[in-house]
Amino acid sequence: MGIEEFPAIESFQRLPKKIIVKGGDSVVNKNGDAELGGIVINNLGQSVCDIVVHLIVFDEKEMPAANVSVKPEQDRLEQGNMASFKFTLEKFGQPVKNFYLYANWKYDDSQWSV
């Protein structure tokens, strides 16, 4: 999945020093499943691994309606690299509009010397 598949993602100028998770536009596929794709960017200055992206979807009353997790296409990222992810919410029936994305990860210390 390439960056060109996410035209609604904003510009990536002057990124903060952190793991950045950005979601694109949500669509409903022919099966009635909501799909939301996006990217994860490592801008920490160190390699990270074991990345998991979490999605919380809120209903019209701002209550959590769904909470799902997925590993991006690469779960290890060097500084400056990015990976894509895609959530599929089965039988959701409408695009995901009100949501929160975040990631968990660990520093990749496999190449650190003591």
Q: How many beta-strand elements?
A: 7
Shape designation = elongated
Low-confidence stretches at least 5 residues in length (pLDDT < 50)? none
**What gap, in angstroms, lies between the N and C termini?**
37 Å
- Strand content is over 45%
| Gyration radius from CA atoms, angstroms | 15 Å
Give average pLDDT, whole number.
87
Number of helices: 0
What is the succession of H and E elements? EEEEEEE
The amount of helix comes to under 10%
Strand pairing plus helix content: what structural class?
mainly beta
> Sheet bearing the most strands, described?
4 strands, antiparallel
Structural features, described:
0% of the residues lie in helices and 49% in strands. The protein has strands spanning 19-28, 34-42, 48-58, 64-70, 76-77, 82-89, 99-107. Strands 3, 4, 5 and 7 form a four-stranded antiparallel β-sheet that branches. A hairpin with a 5-residue loop joins strand 1 (19-28) and strand 2. The model has no long low-confidence stretch (mean pLDDT 87).
Question: Which descriptors apply to this entry?
Answer:
single chain, 3-stranded antiparallel sheet, mainly beta, 114 residues, 4-stranded antiparallel sheet, 7 strands, 0% helix
